[in-house]
Amino acid sequence: METLTAVRGFKDILPPETQLWRHIEDTARKVFSTFGFQEIRVPILEKTDLFTRGIGESTDIVEKEMYTFHDRGEESLTLRPEATASVIRAYLEHALHTSETVTKLFTIGPMFRRERPQKGRYRQFHQIDAEILGPDDPRTDAELILMLIQFLRTLGLNGLTLDINSLGCPECRPAYREAILGYLHGQEEQLCSDCRRRLKTNPLRVFDCKVDLCGQIIGQAPRLTQFICSGCRDHFAKVQQALKQFELPYCLNDKMVRGLDYYTRTTFEVTAGSLGAQNAVVGGGRYDHLVQELGGPDIPGIGFAIGFERLVSMIPEGIPLTPPALFIAALGEPALQRAFLIGNRLRCGGIIVEMDHAGRSLKSQMKKADRLQCKYTLIIGERELQENRALLRDMSASTQEEVCLDQFEEMFSNRAR
Ligand code: ATP
Ligand code: MG
User: Which of 9, 198, 240, 381 is 20 to 30 A distant from 233 in Cα terms?
Assistant: First the structure.
């Protein structure tokens, strides 16, 4: 019979890579909690309206990447393509804003976008997402970026670039939009079909186009810097001042518009040259009107999303596994039975123990102990078992001692502690 395979663009994460995933998650939890963040877990399925309203109808995500279906002919539901909208939905639904003036939340989990699968781009992928709801002061932006960089540094990553930009606000952006439209007028024919559509929906999005010619054309366009209002200019200057206080290097990138409609003011991206074309590891920014657009009060926010798979691919060596403290090599059925008891009791006491249930030769069992880099091997032979003793071998020192089997668990527990 034909064997079944996973859905295209959906990927299994196998051991030992899962160990690295755990390490990254643990590091995120640790670093984020020192900055006062708490974990939230939200469903992966939401009403479609949440994303069309939250992310914006003119974005690539909503236009062509969502997994949307009718739940048995009833409601239109969507597998979440990002986390921010869901986090804010939960924040409002449970009135978290009424108990605190500042809410710092993070969540880690799968996202779904129907893109063309390729290296670093999947249809189910994972994000580490952090959001600060409440304050709009520039120090908050800098603090969030500092936490992000601290997290990446703790993972030992280098060769990263932090790009920042300000996208302005409803006060200064409309004039800029007009300027872009004016600039592109007469050049529409040269743009790709996506960008021609973007002219009608959100012309700033042309900056985000990955088609060469579109990039060249928009590259000469006026920049928001020339239109930005004094409030946004002042805010952005203060963000940069704070970043400098922490000696965080950054590049000003006035072409970075990000792919979601909700961003205002500070936006940022972390890229790594080593990732090739799919080089953005993190995207983030301020969204001062999103909470209101989702039906809530006037509460500003800022957040980021880290692409988990891209992060993992930047840590090529992985992390060293903790090797077992003990391997038990047993010869013959009675010895195997004893090994089974001793080994599992030690495991219940928190000691990592490996053994081989297949009853293979001593030589192949020792080979396995070596391969697993076990610190000690306990060798239980048939005759030794009858005499209630065994050999304990220190694998790196290549020395061995005789031990009493009845007292072994207690003795080894003490030694492994
Ligand atoms: P890109 O420009 O690469 O499509 P994006 O702007 O759509 O990225 P965001 O929506 O900002 O990405 O998501 C934040 C991060 O999530 C990205 O920087 C990237 O690391 C990761 N990411 C986004 N889409 C995918 C995907 N399809 N597969 C794997 N990772 C992804
Ligand atoms: Mg994208």
Answer: 198
Q: Is the pLDDT of residue 54 over 80?
A: yes
Confidence band, pLDDT 50/70/90 cuts, at residue 366: very high
Choose among 167, 151, 79, 113: nearest CA to 306.
151
Token code pair at residue 307: 């692409």
Q: How far apart are CA 216 and CA 43, in angstroms?
A: 41
Closest C-alpha to ligand 1, atom 21: 307
Nearest atom within ligand 1 for CA of residue 120 = 29
Ligand 1, atom nearest to 115 Cα: 27
| Among the four given CATH numbers 3.40.50.720, 3.40.1620.10, 3.40.50.800, 1.10.443.10, the one describing domain 326-416 | 3.40.50.800
- Cα 95 from chain centroid? 27
Tell me the per-residue pLDDT of 65-74, one tens digit each, with 9 for 90 and over.
Answer: 999 999 998 8
Cα–ligand 2 centroid distance for 190 (angstroms): 23
Three-state DSSP state, 223:
coil
Point out the ligand nearest to the CA of residue 269.
Answer: 1
For the CA of 310, the closest atom of ligand 1 is 20
Please list every protein residue whose CB sits less than 6 Å from any atom of ligand 1: 82, 113, 115, 120-122, 125, 127, 259, 278, 280-283, 305, 307, 309-310
**DSSP H helical ranges for 202-279:** 212-219, 230-245
Q: How confident is the model at residue 257 (pLDDT cuts 50, 70, 90)?
A: confident
Q: What pLDDT was estimated at residue 122?
A: 97
Show me where the domains of the chain are located.
17-172+228-313, 326-416
- Quick one: which of 325, 311, 320 has its CA closest to 375? 325
**Residue range 96-149, pLDDT digits in tens:** 999 999 999 999 999 999 999 999 999 999 999 999 999 999 999 999 999 999
Predicted model pTM: 0.91
